[in-house]
Each structure stands twice: as C-alpha cells, then as structure tokens.
Amino acid sequence: MPQVLKGFLIFLCILQLCLVPQRWKSNTNLVAAQRGLSEDPCYDAKQRPRYCIPEFFDLALGREVQASGTCGKVPQKLCSYQDPANVTSKRCHICDQSHARTSYPSAYLTDADAQTCWKSDAGVKFPKNVTLTLSLGRRFELVYLSLRFCSPRPESMVMYKSMDHGRTWTPIQYYSTQCRRVYGLPAAAIITKAMEHEASCTDYQTGLKPLTGGLVAFMPLAGRPSARRFEYSPVLQDWVTATDVRVVFSRLHAGRELGMRRKTTFYGVSELQVGGRCKCNGHASRCAATPEGLTCECQHHTTGLNCDRCKAFYHDRPWQRATPSNAHECVACECNLHSHRCRFSMELYVLSGRRSGGICTGCRHNTAGRHCHYCKQGYKRDPGKAITSRRACRPCQCHPVGAISAMCNQTTGQCQCKMGVTGLTCNRCALGFQQSRSAYMPCVRIPEVTTTADSPLVWNTGTECQTYCKPSRGKVHMNLRKYCTKDYVLRAQIVAMEKSGEWCEFTASVSTVYRQRRVPIRRGDQPLWVPEQDLACACLRLQVGRSYLVIANDEQSPDPSRLVLDRNSLALPWRDAWAYKLRRFQQQHRRGKCKDA
C-alpha cells in the first residue's frame, strides 16, 4: 500500500501541473525569449526541425456528457449519509428536473464547479449499469481521466475508450473490490510488455470512504513498461488515442457496509476531467479552434487533421511520426523547378538506401525524368544554361528528310541521320554521296568508275556490251510460265552498295518473298551479289534507295546460301500493281499449277 500511495501522490503532482498549462507556457516562452531561442517549439534557433507536441488541457471542460440515467424526470427522493457510524446523519432531498434548484443534470459534470453535482436515478440495483459517455470530437492522446464523487464511490466500475467515434469500444481500466468475481480478472496484476495494450483491474480507489469527495483517477501510461520510451512505442501511442471516453458504473456498495439496513441507491459525480492533447504526431505545438473543431497547426511540411501525412510536393521521404531524436520532417521532391507535383515510390526509396523516393510528375519546360533532370524527346540541353532554367532544353531541329527521327543526343545535339546524310541536324549529304529525289533515301552513293586495261567503263552500252547481254529497259511481261521457271521471286529495297573486287555487294532489305528457293530466303537485310561487268553493261540497273522486283535462278550462285544476280536475272523497279498478280501466282503455285505450265 505505501508504494501505491506514493504513486498516487506523484499523479496528483502531475495533475496540478496539468491544470496550469498556460502559466507554464508563459514562463517557458519568457525563458526562450531571454535565451534568444526560436519562438516555434517545432524548430530550434537554427531553424532545424525538432520534435514538438501541443500542451495538454481538460478535454471535458464545457462539453456535453451523455448520461444513461439522470434523476428527476419524475420527482424522487434521494438520501445520503454524512457519517457511516451514525444512522441519524442521514440527509434526504428531492430531485426534480423541472426546478433548477432541485435538478442535477449531466452538464454539472464538466462545468468546472466542484459544488455542483450530477446524480443518477434512485433505486439503481445490480446488474443495471449507469453510463457516462463523452464525445471528444476528434482524436486525442489521453494523459489522465478522473472523477470526483459527491456520493460514495462505486464498488465496481469500468473505463472505456473509442477510436472510431463510438462505433466500437475498448476497456482501458477496471475498478472493483472483487475483480475476479465481477470481471474475471486478478486484482493489481503486474503489467507486462506483452499486455501493455490490455486493461487491468484494481481494487484501489474503490473503498467506501470517503462518503463524499472521493476520487477515482486513471493514467493510461502508469505502470506500462514502455512508458519511458512512449514516442518509440506504436503500441502505447495507439493505447492512449481516443475519440470518445465512457465510464460504466456497474455496482454500488451494499448498505451493510455502512451498518445500515438501507442500501445506497444512486451515483453522484461532481467533476469529470479528461486530460489530453491533440494527436499531432510530434509535428505541431499548437492545436487551434476552427469551424471544424480543434485542428493541429502542422509544421515540418505535414498536413491533415493529425499531421498524419506530408503536404503536396513533400513526398521525397515517407511520412513518419516525429520522435525526440528525429523530427522526420517531410522533404520536398527535387524537380529542378520544373514541376510542383510528385509522388512517393517505396521501391525507389529502398533502392536509394532510404534517402530519396520522390518521383516528379507533370514536368514542364520540355523536361522529363524522375527529377525533371533531362530533356524530353525532340529536345537537347543548352550547355550555357542551368538545368533549373526554363530554357535549359532547346528543340533538336533535326531535318525532316535527312534525319531518321526528331530525337537527338541530349548532350551533343547530334541527330540520327539516314545513310549517306551527315551534319548536326542531318541537313547535307556525306562525302561520296549525292542528293537524290527520294525522301526515303535523300542521299545516294556516287557511282564508282569501273575500268578495263585501257579505258573506263561506266554504264557502257556500246557494241562490246551488246554482245554480252541485252540491256535492261525495265519492261517485262509477267505470266505464270515465267514465274514458274524461276528459282525465287521477291521484293527488296537496295539500302547500300560496296565494291569488292570484280563483284559489287548490295545490301537488300527483303520485304516479301513470292517464290521461295530451296535454301529459304529470310525477310530483312540480305547481301545481294552482282558481277561488276553486269552493272557496267547495264544488264542490271540497281540504284540505292529504290525497291525492285527480283526474279532469278540459283545456277550462277557458287554458294547456295548467297543471292547472286547476273545478266540472266531481272531486277525491275517495283510497281504496286504487281502485288495482286504475284499473290495470285503464289496461290496457283501452291495448288500445283506450275507443273502444268
């Protein structure tokens, strides 16, 4: 008992401190001003964020309390005893709600007047309960809950809290002279760390004496092993959080304890106090009244009713409750002044070693990337301006014909040029190439001069070539018989040409194979070999950048895997009208028509 009494005296000292927060705050501000410290407790003198909490006050003061039973709806007689040893000390009076002088409403519980008193109906008997319910309006962290009685204290009672505005209730403390019999719990059990979030039962503060003025007080953190490290214990933070509190009086003291025949038949409470502070999660030092109720004045770039989330654009780190060792300030995303919006990615945060997880959204000024730190497609960096400048990215200005796309190198600004095209913006032909009239191949290689022993031969159509082959004129009458006599028929575009001894190697991009050879021809880029003499005598006319219908046999090819065109082959400039006829020949071939041709 001495240990319990010592603990309660400490509680009373704390309670006195709770009742004078304004003077304590004034003195603290005075000392801070004298030392030149920051006026905002959430920041130190160097404006570095630090843990801060709002001051606590009586949450019940002036609030309405819902009582399940109040005397005087029908005038009734209430009696009390001034001295338990003296039967003649009995005093009786009338409770009648129709007269102010004889009514005892629940408003007296929170009017800060110790002389007024709420009284329940007379004739209350076990197991009938009487309930007092107080709605706090928002989430608070409870510091204490106390009741001052103007009748004998109950023999058994329970304190509850709700975290969801009264939808569900959790017991936080049981009081009874018979804990195990009434509530099935041991009396004065030691609270272990595993049961910090569970209610216990005590027979302390349940005695009959005093007959009036008795106190029942509860401190949610008292006796909890982690109380000294409350700010690091999510379990205790949840334990003290409440939106509503409720007190249930379960059992009166029997009259035989008074040595009297009659039993005590009503409960009377002169004062209900709920000490607490706004739940601001260590990010606010003030809780101000607004039309919506008490609201935390959030600091550290937090927002929300309980400062429970980061403000817009401050999502580079995840929100956390502040602690005395770390304020866990919300940090702005790094968007290089090109965006005011961002989102948080836990995956990136973990990959960065828990340093940064913000992703900028809606990058402006032609920028892109997680931090709006590079130029978007079609733009290049201006080396003369900082990345934070609105003009840090300039258009690539790639030539619409000479460039493959509008994209360019972010650093050098070099556009991706087509074959034979050069320049920063792909605006001129490279050395050895000349301009053509084709938008697909704007620059073609200048034809090389082929020579014999004495004189050059360039597209020679003289008598020497006339005996070698019949020059191609680009005219041919295609029929099924000619189609069937050839080893392969395909459509290809000449992409490039390179001389190799007496042969010219063309790079042909095969798009369609209408007749397949024994060694299959695949679509895509394929090497195409042509004897140099066949080109010199114009047996075949091939130009880089143009598409052709190629009709040939494999008999001149020294290697079955290579495509070889010679004077007996055909390479005709492609006409779209041929596609339908070739598809028809292809179908007839599959039906076996080539055997009959």
Automatic annotation (TrEMBL):
Coiled coil: none annotated. Gene3D superfamilies: 2.40.50.120, Galactose-binding domain-like (2.60.120.260), Laminin (2.10.25.10). The keyword Disulfide bond applies. It is found in: Secreted. Residues 278-332, 396-445 form the Laminin EGF-like domain. Transmembrane segments: none annotated. CDD domains: EGF_Lam, NTR_netrin-1_like. GO terms for cellular component: basement membrane; extracellular region. This is Netrin-1.
